[in-house]
TrEMBL record:
Belongs to the PDCD5 family. Residues 26-35 have a biased composition (Low complexity). It comes from Picea sitchensis (Sitka spruce). PANTHER family: PROGRAMMED CELL DEATH PROTEIN 5 (PTHR10840:SF0). SUPFAM superfamilies: Double-stranded DNA-binding domain (SSF46950). InterPro entries: PDCD5-like (IPR002836), PDCD5-like_sf (IPR036883). It comes from the Eukaryota. Signal peptide: none annotated. Residues 1-46 are annotated as: Disordered. One of its GO terms (molecular function) is DNA binding. GO terms for cellular component: cytosol; nucleus. This is Uncharacterized protein.
Length: 128
């Protein structure tokens, strides 16, 4: 059952497959490093822009919000950056203005919960 020729073919095929995977893995690892570097650079640019837009107290407040709700902090940062790019924000945002903005965003995104209770009629209940 063990054919030496068949085993030799299998080994060659395995070596070919391993050789094909190695350069691909190196390339994907390099691509991942490049993507991580781009992401890091974009984050640095973002932080630099935010430091130009926000006062130090406002940056601290957003940092505290990011600890609890990172997605909400990211949304506020995006909103501020868009406002600065479109020219709506021309001066540094103070902590008081940031608080007002946060309250405004909370009002807009406030989720209302509605609870409805449906009582099931029991077989033993009398409707008479």
């Amino acid at each position: 059952m063990d054919d030496p020729e068949l085993n030799a073919i299998r080994q060659r095929r395995m070596q070919e497959l391993m050789a094909q995977r190695s350069p691909g893995n190196q390339q994907s690892a390099e691509q991942q490093q490049a993507q991580e570097e781009q992401k890091r650079e974009a984050d640095e640019r973002r932080q630099m822009m935010l430091s130009q837009i926000l006062s130090s107290q406002a940056r601290e407040r957003i940092a505290r919000i990011a600890l609890v709700k990172p997605d909400k902090a990211r949304g506020v940062e995006d909103f501020l950056l868009r406002g600065a790019q479109t020219g709506q924000i021309t001066e540094k945002v103070s902590e008081e203005r940031l608080i007002a903005l946060l309250e405004q965003i909370n009002e807009q995104t406030k989720k209302s919960t509605k609870v409805t209770i449906q009582r099931r009629r029991s077989v033993l209940d009398d409707d008479d």
